[in-house]
Fold this sequence. Notes:
single chain, mainly alpha, two-stranded antiparallel sheet, 4 helices, 2 strands, globular
Amino acid sequence: MKGISLLLNLLWFVLGGWIMAIQxxxxxxxxxxxxxxxxxxxxxxxxAMFSAFPFGQELIDSPKGRGxxxxxxxxxxxxxxxxxxWIAISHALAGIVLFITIIGIPFGFAHFKLxxxxxxxxxxxxxPKPLKTR
Length: 134
């Protein structure tokens, strides 16, 4: 499965994943400049890395974030209201369009993963996806 993930990540990156990662990164920079958006920046930059290479990994709730889960929850609610919904909708629409093309189905799944990540990015961690056993 690692070979397929590598191939899909390379295709994804070359065909536009790098642009998406740069957009997320620039969004994080803009929020960092505003100071008030600074708590969102680590989560957004994690999504930038995730959007560059989404295959073979997943975003999960960080075990380190349990102590600050109330703070993370509040940040995620603010994010969801002001940005998360709109970004998630754009990823979901891109995923639907890719599903229609048939050949773009794997990339459609990646957009759906990014839509879920865009909803609540604070307190997440990127981990390798576990291999499925029979």
